[in-house]
């Protein structure tokens, strides 16, 4: 059997270090077996997916040195590699499941489903579909379809017994079928859910081994059952432990920068970032911590993957990055890397419109724009003292901004402007007053080049990281405060 692995990110936001983590190990496994590594874009969430996000994912993974044999940008024999271009394939397979009696039409309304879940929670039962539509008479189903009733397609699951999930590293994992939901396979808009699309695509693309996060273990019975329904052989599962914050919670952008782009903007070397991701889940035969991607590829053994809880510690990454700078870059290479990082044409072209009309000499550029080329700023609580806005109100505005910014589908001047207009309106304060703590957090100053444009240039992750930093400088937000502020934010929506 030819080894074929894949990574399948969703283009719904900033490219995540977790994506790179799974891509790294998938690429290493394929390489170690003279196999092939595939990149597939899972973009069936049409409302959140964007071509910009897809390009960011591709560029970020390539920046790290990861390369794939097949994908939307390089083609291949199993094209197309975007799920949005494969809808007819999924619809055909839904039809097969319906005809074989392995799936059924569900006409339940959102209100009924909400009430069902409330009752289950009250009884402390597992939240799962109760099978209300599973035995509808065929004539009634056809009548409802003919009448244009809204519906989804759900898969049937056994009512009792145990599913045994075979994992290459973890061994057999038993999951009771009573804990497995009758998963929606096709949504009301005709689009497939992840669970159908991933099984169909993995089979048709001849994927032999699936490396993914442990959060998918509970979904494995659904995927195994679907493969059985179609008469397909299931790929080999390898469920890796999730990356964690230093407090051992799941890595999330609320506690830690998770975007690959953040580390690129901060001036980390891609060699160090990929090295660190490797260290988190793998041990080299000689135990060394510093190694190149090629060295990991050459020495890779699937049995050396660690099932410990990998802690993504930015301080440890910075230490490793320092080693790469000092040990691998001579003076010429160092200068070249710095120039590539700070003076690349794309960055400069975005900055020029912000400053061209505000300077008389080029020597003014550095003090005016230094914050655009920095990571986190050297801020103190005294920087936020202002006669118009108190420290507590500043912290409140910063926290609201942080939460609201996480919901932005796009990160550009207009979206940022709209965020603050709405926020100022909800807080019933002048827009200018609302922006005071943001100016300080983002630029370290009360006056700087246009704020919204500056935030767009900095990007979402750097902007959010600076806002988080400002909140901490002002004393942070306790759990009690956070709950109170969340209620307040909901109230003025």
Topology:
Blueprint: E1 4-7, H1 17-32, E2 36-39, H2 51-63, H3 87-100, E3 103-106, H4 110-122, H5 138-146, E4 152-155, E5 162-167, E6 171-176, E7 184-186, H6 194-204, E8 209-213, H7 220-230, E9 236-240, H8 260-265, H9 270-281, H10 293-299, H11 314-328, H12 331-342, H13 345-355, H14 365-369, H15 391-405, H16 413-427, H17 431-443, H18 451-458, H19 460-473, H20 479-491
Parallel strand pairs: 1-2, 8-9
Antiparallel strand pairs: 3-4, 4-7, 5-6
Helix pairs in contact: 1-10, 6-7, 9-11, 15-16, 15-17, 15-19, 16-17, 16-18, 17-19
Sum up the structure in keywords.
about 500 residues; mainly alpha; Rossmann fold; Glutamyl-tRNA Synthetase, domain 3; three-stranded antiparallel β-sheet; two-stranded parallel sheet; about 45% helix; about 10% strand
């Amino acid at each position: 059997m030819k080894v074929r692995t894949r990574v399948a990110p969703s283009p719904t936001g900033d490219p995540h270090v977790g994506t790179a983590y799974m891509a790294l190990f998938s690429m290493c496994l394929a390489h170690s077996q003279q196999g092939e590594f595939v990149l597939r874009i899972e973009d069936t969430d049409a409302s959140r997916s964007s071509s910009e996000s897809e390009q960011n994912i591709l560029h970020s993974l390539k920046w790290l040195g990861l390369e794939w044999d097949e994908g939307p940008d390089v083609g291949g024999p199993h094209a197309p590699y975007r799920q949005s271009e494969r809808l007819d394939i999924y619809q055909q397979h839904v039809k097969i499941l319906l005809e074989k009696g392995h799936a059924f039409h569900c006409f339940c309304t959102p209100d009924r489903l909400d009430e069902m879940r409330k009752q289950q929670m009250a009884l402390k039962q597992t939240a799962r579909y109760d099978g209300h539509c599973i035995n509808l008479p065929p004539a009634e189903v056809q009548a409802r379809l003919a009448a244009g009733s809204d519906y989804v397609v759900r898969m049937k699951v056994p009512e009792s017994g145990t599913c045994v999930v075979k994992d290459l590293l973890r061994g057999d994992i038993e999951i009771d079928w009573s804990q497995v939901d009758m998963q929606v396979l096709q949504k009301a808009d005709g689009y497939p859910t992840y669970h159908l699309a991933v099984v169909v695509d993995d089979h048709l693309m001849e994927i032999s081994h699936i490396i993914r996060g442990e959060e998918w273990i509970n979904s494995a019975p659904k995927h195994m059952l679907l493969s059985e329904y179609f008469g397909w052989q299931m790929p080999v599962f390898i469920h890796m432990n999730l990356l964690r914050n230093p407090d051992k919670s799941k890595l999330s952008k609320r506690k830690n920068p998770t975007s690959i782009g953040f580390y690129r903007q901060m001036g980390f070397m891609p060699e160090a970032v990929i090295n660190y991701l490797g260290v988190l889940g793998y041990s080299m035969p000689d135990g060394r911590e510093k190694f190149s991607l090629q060295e990991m590829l050459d020495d890779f053994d699937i049995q050396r993957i660690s099932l410990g809880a990998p802690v993504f510690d930015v301080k440890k990454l910075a230490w490793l990055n320092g080693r790469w700078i000092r040990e691998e870059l001579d003076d010429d290479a160092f200068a070249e890397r710095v120039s590539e990082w700070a003076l690349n044409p794309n960055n400069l072209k975005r900055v020029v419109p912000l400053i061209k009309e505000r300077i008389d000499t080029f020597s003014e550029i550095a003090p005016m724009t230094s914050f655009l080329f920095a990571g986190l700023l050297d801020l103190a609580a005294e920087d936020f003292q202002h006669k118009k806005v108190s420290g507590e109100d500043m912290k409140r505005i910063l926290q609201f901004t942080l939460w609201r910014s996480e919901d932005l589908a796009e990160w550009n001047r207009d979206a940022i402007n709209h965020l603050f207009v709405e926020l100022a309106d909800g807080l019933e304060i002048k827009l200018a007053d609302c922006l005071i703590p943001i100016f300080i957090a983002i630029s370290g100053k009360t006056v700087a080049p246009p704020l919204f444009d500056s935030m767009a240039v900095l990007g979402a992750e750097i902007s959010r990281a600076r806002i988080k930093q400002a909140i901490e400088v002002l004393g942070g937000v306790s759990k009690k405060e956070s709950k109170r502020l969340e209620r307040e934010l909901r109230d003025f929506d």
